[in-house]
Hints:
mainly alpha
Amino acid sequence: MQAYENKQALIDEIIKRADLFISEFEPINNSDKDISVSEVDRTPAQMIAYQLGWMNLILSWEQDNQNGKDVITPTPDYKWNNLGGLYQSFYNQYADDSLEMLMEKFNHDVDRIIHLVESYKDKELFGQGGRQWATTTPSSWPIWKWIHINTVAPFKTFRTKIRKWKKVRGV
């Protein structure tokens, strides 16, 4: 897994990968946002909803910790062995949004994630136990790893998926 030498390197990578990912959706018509193709496991709208869902989970975990609440990851309603149900909840939450609105929300939430990263001290971001929510799994990852796994990594993976979707659809 990619590592970061400092906070700014993580922020730069989030911005770079987010911009590359979301720019792939610009040529897609809103009327095509829910079209699936057999070669790709999600529709364009689902790809963005997935990203929005995970970014908002991280933000909500942080907010809950700031409010003194113990966080259950991924959510009290979904356990790690039911991620399919969690993903479906993301798709349902954003199902009525236009592609343009999804893209706007994505850019807004990327900015919120960047502000979150900026708010951490280096010890919190890169050390073990920076937040209660980051210690809720046996691996007890540092915060930067949670953020990477739920932003940079899927931005790369889903960029490949949307490019394949566009190729199949002739976009």
